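Q: What residues go here?
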C-alpha cells in the first residue's frame, strides 16, 4: 500500500511568553537577599519583655519564611504582567501542515 499525504494551509498564532520559572527563581533569590539585609540591619539586644536574645541565624530563618514566598509571588505577578504586554504583539501566520501516513511494514 502506498503512503498517503495531505496538505493543509492553516493559521497559527505566534506569541512570546515569559519563562515563569526563571522569573519566580529571581523572586526567590531577591527574597533571600532581602532576608539577609533585614537580618544584618536588625539589632540583637536582649528583649525587655521576654528577656531573650534571638541569634542571627534564627532571625534569618524566620525572615526567609516571609520573604521567599513573597518573592516567589512577586516573580509570578511580573510574569503575568509581561505576558499581558507580550500578548499585544502576537502575530497570526499561515503555515503549511502536512500529514504523512505510511505503511509500517518494511517488506521483510
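A:
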Amino acid at each position: 500500500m502506498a503512503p498517503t499525504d495531505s496538505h493543509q494551509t492553516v493559521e497559527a498564532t505566534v506569541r512570546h511568553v515569559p519563562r515563569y520559572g526563571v522569573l519566580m527563581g529571581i523572586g526567590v533569590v531577591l527574597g533571600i537577599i532581602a532576608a539577609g539585609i533585614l537580618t544584618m540591619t536588625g539589632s540583637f539586644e536582649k528583649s525587655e519583655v521576654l528577656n531573650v536574645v534571638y541569634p542571627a541565624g534564627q532571625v534569618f530563618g524566620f525572615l526567609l519564611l516571609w520573604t521567599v514566598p513573597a518573592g516567589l509571588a512577586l516573580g509570578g505577578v511580573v510574569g503575568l504582567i509581561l505576558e499581558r504586554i507580550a500578548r499585544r504583539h502576537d502575530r497570526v501566520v499561515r503555515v503549511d501542515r502536512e500529514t504523512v501516513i505510511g505503511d509500517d511494514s518494511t517488506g521483510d
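A: Context that may help when evaluating the design: Helices lie at 20-41, 56-87. The longest strand covers residues 4-14.
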